[in-house]
Automatic annotation (TrEMBL):
This is Esterase. The keyword Phosphoprotein does not apply. Residues 1-21 form the signal peptide. Keywords: Signal. The keyword Signal applies.
Length: 569
């Protein structure tokens, strides 16, 4: 009888909720063709920003629900019910009754007919760096204040009347140029034109020294809108000081402008190494960059960058064009990328400086061991289950768990299509599944790890393991080239993998690795090895720090007869 009563109560509750319908539609004015994508229902308790800009991993996040749509016709209504997955509350049925600022957004998908025979629907980057709330062509509704209550019988109808406009590409200047090429390798893989780009900072005197050829400094990181950290004018005196909570600083925007201007003065001043510095654009249907490696799901980005884009840049802008005269540096995603590119293409690059790299040893995939642990979300015992932390500050205070971070991603996109951090690791590192999408490394709802996928990850992308395994073959080409830096209070626990990697590197023999691993005391994410400055300053000095560092180190690693002088005017 009690079980029957519970079932009746559940049906009654669901029925009550379903009486208030939330319907979303668009008209032929926005698109005359049917659309595919991820439809998001966004709710906020405040109107400080549009709800689409208030979904985050921290405690101030607002609410989102997601619904996959295919062949969605103009004027056809899509309905949100208690079944759609949400974050941080999982079901609309659990949403407290009250007043909300409500908005809907369609993150549009494109159909790809890939070389491997799979047909997949994914959100192609459109110049915004895979930001669902900023992607040109996405449809959205204007925010409206509504009363949400499952007991009411009214119909809420949201119309996607707005379209996010195209993004203007940056213009060339005296020092900064831009390049975009169609990649033959990636176009063949994806079955449609695919492009790679770069923002190029030319050295002082490039135009007045036409006989000089220059080394290439490759900065890897997230999708750059333009070349960052370079400003030819002093800070804006009318700029209103902002406040950045992470560093507890007021006026950080002015500090950033001053640092950028200081770099310009160094770059153009006497004694600074004359190199070509580049920032690469390689956004793709899964993320704002590709991780600069070949992948079953993303295609041959490693080869495309190394053998198509970089030689083209060197050809157009008088690079030396040899592996000894190329080096890489970057932080976070960029930190992983530079180490990976150095390991997978050991003769094509002459040094990598990897700051706060994404997990480079999967025995510490942030806070859990991908090979031994059973669950990504919880440490489980016979009687106790403890949630694994995902983000902390320098005091160790946790603001998000791994489960919460992944629930946000699952709301933004199924089948590894959220465009967020955990999903891109999975897209890059996993084999292709039977449906054409990446195989899950762990169940997105339960956190249960798939050990067979973990084994694939180890053999193909565990950089620490691969260096150890392949050292007899690549050691001579890597000695002296590996530099790793990480704060010991990295916000994402990335220092854990660095500890394992350091132990492995120090044990290598014939030859010894002869590189560098260093840690910043209480330093958070993006610490780059500078012990003389606080992290909020050192994180702004990647270019000037690593370019000058490499220019000295290359004297020991350049081949006989290499030109080490003409570019030092």
């Amino acid at each position: 009888m009690r079980k029957l009563f519970c079932c009746i109560l559940l049906l009654y509750t669901t029925a009550c909720f379903s009486q208030q319908a939330i319907l979303v539609s668009f008209s032929s004015k926005q698109s005359a063709q049917p659309l595919d994508g991820r439809l998001l229902l966004l709710l906020s308790k405040n109107n400080g920003q549009e709800p689409r800009f208030q979904i985050s991993d921290d405690a101030i996040t607002q609410q989102a629900f997601g619904l996959d749509v295919e062949n969605w016709q103009p004027a056809e209504s899509k309905r949100f019910t208690a079944k759609e997955w949400g974050y941080p509350i999982q079901s609309l049925q659990q949403l407290p009754s009250g007043d909300y600022y409500v908005q809907a957004l369609l993150h549009r998908y494109e159909t790809f007919h890939r070389k491997d025979g799979h047909v997949v629907k994914l959100p192609m980057d459109r110049g915004e760096g895979q930001q669902w709330n900023l992607a040109p062509g996405n449809l959205y509704s204007k925010p409206v204040k509504l009363h949400i209550d499952g007991r009411l019988k009214n119909i809420i109808h949201l119309d996607l009347t707005e379209v996010i406009p195209a993004i203007k590409e940056p213009a060339d200047t005296k020092y900064i140029k831009h390049i975009k090429i169609q990649s033959k390798l990636l176009t063949e893989f994806w079955g449609r034109p695919m492009y790679l780009g770069a923002h190029i900072l030319l050295p002082e005197g490039w135009d007045t020294h036409p006989e000089v050829r220059y080394p290439l400094a490759i900065f890897h990181g997230h999708f750059p809108g333009d070349f960052g950290g370079f400003r030819t004018t002093p800070p804006d005196t009318a700029l209103q000081p902002d406040y950045i909570a992470r560093f507890n600083l007021k006026g950080y925007n002015k500090i950033v402008q001053q640092e950028n201007y200081n770099f310009y003065k160094q770059w153009t001043g006497p004694g600074f190494p004359r190199v070509i510095a580049i920032e690469i654009q390689h956004a793709n249907p899964y993320y704002d960059d590709s991780y600069a490696v070949n992948s079953e799901n993303l295609g041959p980005y490693g080869d495309a960058i190394t053998y198509e884009l970089i030689p083209e840049i060197e050809k157009r802008f008088r690079g030396i064009g040899q592996g000894w005269a190329r080096f890489m540096y970057g932080g976070s995603t960029g930190g992983w990328e530079v180490l990976a590119a150095q390991v997978f293409y050991p003769g094509e690059y002459n040094g990598c400086y990897a700051a706060c790299p994404d997990p480079i040893d999967f025995r510490a995939y942030t806070v859990f061991n991908l090979y031994k642990d059973k669950n990504a979300y919880f440490e489980e015992g016979d009687f106790k289950k403890t949630a694994r932390p995902g983000h902390r500050n320098y005091l160790g205070q946790v603001s998000a768990t791994i489960q919460q971070m992944n629930y946000r991603e699952l709301t933004l996109g199924t089948k590894t299509r959220s465009g967020q951090q955990w999903d891109i690791w999975e897209a890059v590192f996993s084999p292709v599944g039977a449906d054409g999408y990446p195989k899950r490394i762990f169940d997105k709802q339960t956190g249960v790890i798939d050990s067979t996928v973990a084994t694939y990850w180890k053999e193909h992308y565990d950089l620490s393991w691969i260096m150890k395994r392949d050292w007899p073959k690549i050691g001579q080409q890597l000695t002296g080239k590996v530099h790793i830096y990480c704060g010991d209070m990295d916000n994402y626990y990335l220092n854990n993998a660095v500890y394992f990697t350091e132990e492995m590197l120090k044990a290598l023999q014939d030859p010894a690795y002869n590189g560098e691993v260093d840690y910043g005391d209480r330093a958070e994410h993006c610490w780059n090895g500078d012990h003389t400055q606080p992290n909020y300053i050192s994180r702004l000095r990647y270019h000037q720090m690593f370019i000058t560092k490499w220019a000295e180190e290359v004297k020991k690693r350049a081949p006989a007869g290499a030109d080490l002088n003409s570019w030092r005017y």
